[in-house]
Amino acid sequence: MLNFNYSIPTKIFFGKDQIKVLGKEIKKYGSKVLLAYGGGSIKKIGLYGEVIKILNEENIPFWELSGIEPNPRIESVREGIRICRENDIDFILPVGGGSTIDCAKVIAAGFFYEGDPWDLVIRKAKIEKVLPIASVLTLAATGSEMDAGAVITNPETKQKLGVGHPDMAPKFSILDPTYTFSVPASQTAAGTADIMSHILESYFSNNKDAFVQDKIAEGLLKTCIKYGPIAIKEPDNYEARANLMWASSLAINGLIRYGKEAIWSVHPLQHELGAYYDITHGVGLAILTPHWMRHVLSDSTVEKFVEYGKNVWDIKDDKYDYDIANEAIDKTQEFFKSLGIPTTLRELGIGEENLEKMARAVTNYNGGTVGSYKPLSYEDVLEIYKKAL
Ligand code: NZQ
Ligand code: ZN
What we know:
The protein has 389 residues and is an alpha/beta fold. Helices cover 48% and strands 10% of the residues. The protein folds into 2 domains: 11-179, Rossmann fold; 185-388, Dehydroquinate synthase-like - alpha domain (Dehydroquinate synthase-like, alpha domain), CATH 1.20.1090.10. The protein has 15 helices and 8 strands. The site of zinc ion (ZN) has 6 residues, from α7.
């Protein structure tokens, strides 16, 4: 196991009616709030009204940024920074899914930067200081509620990139599974695939001795496999929504990645698709993941795939290693399909037109190769994209 410094600073308030702590908690960090949200789902479920009521009752002045897009755009970040500066806002409260939380994080960082916030995303400038943020989560997927990263899209340059800073981690997050009852089947499926992808990105690493982390990872994967289908069939099943929600946070908050070298492979490929085609993040991951797995399966990785097959998919140990590994990959693909997720890029309207450009961009941006498990060259990436068509 590699050395690591454990720090997961976000305080979690988990469960039904935990929103009651909101006013008191905000007052620990700020006095003027930017309430950030997406296209209106929080109004439909009554959460917007609940939050406004609390802010009013607690005499906390607030301003609003609405309409944050799925795959949040740099334009929304710019608008949020403008509102914050004009009104001396000192605390950001995103209420929604990963897109809303990510946008809020970069508003919080961009507030202290004089230039264009896109500079921070492309690492032309460094994040020095960040306004405090806290989140109220409504979709189990990205883990943004408990991590220090954000992913922002610039449609003009056709880039979707991740950015992070320890101070971008929410001070606290409210995780009430009942807020996710209204998440439609397609987003529940995409969210489940996203959580699984976060786990797999850390699970498949070249460190063979992080037993604790890998057993937690396997448990989290089994949680998604058990509860993803239940949440789709019974949207208001509390047990299913609660388990997915907590798995979402644990998958990416550092817990299963500490002590391992795990530079992600599939996410950068998916972010490129997102930049060009604005597709749902978890859908792209579900399509790419099995093809990435088949591409990296080799004599040096087969042992890990056997472990994955036996411990996650309960495949019997009575076959050759490669048969177990291939069955595990097939089961992964079948599972995503069973959730109703498309299995090919063509189903999303993606053809061959930009594959080479995307493969070039993602390898160049990552310094020549993508990921650390089996570093992917331009040719590797292109082949994975082509197989996923
Ligand atoms: O905009 P509203 O009206 O709120 O509707 C949203 C949106 O249309 C809807 N939704 C959210 N909660 C709902 C709901 N609908 C009904 N009931 C609810 N309770 O769902 C749609 C998708 O929302 P979005 O926030 O875009 O989804 P998600 O949470 O999957 O976030 C995706 C974004 O996060 C990034 C992705 O790349 C993508 O841009 N990621 C962020 C990460 C991070 N910060 O660590 C890591 C991830 O790997 C990922 O890259
Ligand atoms: Zn993801």
